Structure prediction request, 938 residues.
Amino acid sequence: MAAHLRLGVFKFASCDGCQLQLLDAQGKLLEIARHLDIAHFPEARSAVGEGPYDIGLVEGSITTPADAERIQEIRRQCRYLVTIGACATSGGIQALRNWGQIDSFVSAVYATPAFISTLATSTPIADHVPVDFELRGCPIDVRQLVELITSFVLGRKPRVPSTSVCVECKARGTVCVAVAQGIPCLGPVTQAGCGAICPAHGRECFGCFGPSEPANLVSLTGQYERQGTPPEQLIRLTRSFNAQSPAFRAESDRLEGASHE
Amino acid sequence: MISPVAQATDPWRSHPARIVRIAEEIGGVRSYDLVLDNTAVRAAYRFVPGQFNMLYLPGIGEAAISISSSMATPDLLTHTVRSVGNVTAALARAKVGDPVLIRGPFGNPWPVDRLADRDVVIVAGGLGLASQRSLIDALARHATACRSTAVIHGAKRPADLLFQSEYAAWKAAGIDMHPIVDVGEGGWSGPVGLVTKLLDTLPLDPQSTTLLCCGPDRMMTAVAEKAFARGVPADEVYLSLERNMSCAVAHCGLCQFGPLFVCRDGPVFSFDRIAQFLAVPQC
Amino acid sequence: MVVSPSPISERNIGDWLRLPPAGLQLLIETLAENHRVVGPQVADGAVVYRDLRGIAELPVGWLDEQDGGRYRLHQDPTAGFFDHVVGPHSLKNFLFPARETVASFVRTDGEWVQQTHAPEDRPLAVIGVRACDMAALRIQDKVFLGSGHVDPGYQARRQRLFTVAVNCRRAAATCFCHSMACGPAVEPGFDLALTERDGWFACQIGSPAGHALIQRLATADAGIVSCTVEEVDAAKQVSIDLEASMHARQPEAGAPRPRSLDTHGIRDLLYAQMEHPRWEEVATRCLSCTNCTLVCPTCFCSSVTEVADLSGDHVERERHWASCFTLDHARMHGGSVRSSTASRYRQWVTHKLAGWIDQFDSSGCTGCGRCITWCPVGIDLTEEVAALRHSDPP
Prediction:
């Protein structure tokens, strides 16, 4: 077998939930550890292996000047850089700051705002350095993470479909919550990968895997509006964990603009 | 209940084979000679030029690759590929002796049984010549009883012309070779331009010409139009299409082109059969 | 003329029997001895196919209201066991499952060995299959059994399938089987077919397997007797009346529009309209979400994924449903052949209603209406085809 690939896991502005998915791989974790040298993973081990790394998994978004510099060095150290989760791939829930004034947030929250060094926006990693691959989700799906690692080890492209969540609902036989219950669901415009967990439990998809390709949000929200869903609810639905992803951002801004007219 | 259906072999049954030779062709393109492991399978294996195999590397993927070796030696199967996808990239890392699994052969071949007394014009764009090499070999061996054979092969640069080392043997067998390049560099003294340019001036009798073309869709459409302008009828122009072939047995639907399954009804079609759909963008 | 009931042991294929609800219960229990029995049940706001233990689980008293992008159940005391029509599931979910391992390989000392498949699960018996879905079964048979190559998994499940079909007594607004010559009367091909009557079922024997099952039930005290001629005629009249009413349906204010599809010359019509601006117009509404294709009982596209462990020594080839609405469907090096939503919607409709005729000598549509109901934005292929028909080519 070829020499073990070296893995580094890096954290930016995030909740650590995506890194935990790696630890949550359970039976697969030992298998991964047999085939990869997990060199840098501060969440899981105190030993820190220096770079360079074959694969860098990057969690979190860029929200501080220091992080904007740190990601540059990590990019240099990683042969393949993979963003994991909604924060790293689209800016995360913290990107809601992008619609507000950062100074007013800082002064409202912190006793001594002068100590706070932060950027006005939360931005995805790809806005700062080239990204080789992205895993979506809040958090990421452990099966997709295992598929990613397996594909690297075996030497092929990862198979992470860009199709809608509806594909997964139909595959598991879940009844459509939008059609059968009138619940506004983002599934038809959200990328699959979660296994359609939320609709399987009778609630709407809230888009935590970000937009599918393609994502015709105008048609979908128009349908929900005609069925009586207020625009404010649709703005909240599209402006959450992937608020900053271009398709969702454009739609929430469009809905907001239309409702102000 | 259901009326009985003859139990066909499992279309997902792959046969182990081995790489016995790897040849560097032009830059980034290699030929892999494969021999089936099982002697009975090997003895029973027959193909006709234009057909393809599904080359399978477990865990990596499967790819439809046309057979580029001689139909006279079906115990040795050559596949000429550029490294672009999962399978071809993995093949680029492979070495002689490595296993490759094969399903095949599949598909509708070049009309080799309709070429007797015909003037055959082969037009190939780039790697398209790989699908026609076994055809040229059959013509060179006079296996089709055709009257004449001309090959127009277009490539970007002189160094991109495939199978140049075989030109001498093909010429010796009476085949007219007409290579043409987009960029005439490195002491190139031959023609420069698109394959359609050569088709303008190639002496041909439209009543006795059969044209066989393989290349990108747009190039094939242009070649066909040129052939019609020279008076060649649409049912004497054949194209080999490339689509997303996955199951190879017309079950998965991914290669559909209009009402046609390219894996089964193609990849070789007479132009008149597909003209209606070739004219439609994104069909 | 009244014919006195005769012992059913004398009955043959094609004959009709009186089956009380207790007889249907016994039928289900008897089938369950060596089948996995599934049937319609209310779950998550819809009538879906689930494992069925008895008639108490059937959707007695439930009716479905269906329209573009809308499905609602409500209770109605006059509704019988089977007065709902089709839900999101069909036989496809079982015979051509969403995921299936089609081959598996193990590498030992560098050599690949293809594994032989484990035997199939218990044979399947499905209660409540409608005419449109029996028609869909015939269509999928052509795809997986009749096109030169046989799909072994489908064949194994299909050969052992037992169908208890049901003749519909009502149609949803989205139903247009009458346009597609696929219903509402169930065509031969079933094992047993039920027509619900007032408190009992008229049960027609359709196959040797159906006959054998009825013979077994006859030995129990299930109250099964032959139908009288009048009862047979009345049962047959149910489908005749429903079909007539479907042809006569007219739009009413405040009610979903009753669907129909003019199939006259439809193949040539669609081929002539490949560059019609309507395709671009529908693309502004289409989500490319794939729902229409996945609920369609005849759509058969699939792709295969390599599922390997990290050693790469154990590999399963997993086939899963694919859809012509995804960019992966016609993906080649350099991107999808059909990169626009308009081209993908066109591919689906022209394949379903035109290309299918070339491929399989029948339409790919049975008029079940699922693609209309389960489209989140209610795109309606009957409406799209009508729009193409009633406008001049570009």
Chain A has a mean pLDDT of 95. Chain A is about 40% helix and 10% strand. The radius of gyration of chain A is 19 Å.
